[in-house]
Amino acid sequence: MIRIKPFRAIRPPRDKAYLVATRSYLTYSEEELDDKLNNNPYTFLHVINPEGARHLSFGKPRYQMVKKRFEDFSRDQTFIRDEEENFYLYRQVKEGNEYIGLIAAVSVEDYFEGRIKKHEKTLTPREKMFTDYLEVTGFNAEPVLLTYKDDLRLDQIFARYIAERAEYEFTSTDRVLHQLWLIGNREDLTKIQKVFKEQEALYIADGHHRCSSSSLLARRLDKRENKPEGTNHRFFMAFLIGEEQMKVYDFNRLVKGFNGLSPQEFLEGLQKDFLIDLKGEHVYKPEKLHEISLYIKGQWYKLVPRTGSFDPGHPVEHLDTQIISKKILKPLLGIQNIKTDQRVGFLPGTEGLEGLKKKVNSGAYDLAFALFPVSMEQIKEVADTGKTMPPKSTYIEPKLRSGLTIYKIL
Question: Residue 384 in 3-state DSSP?
Answer without folding.
Answer: helix
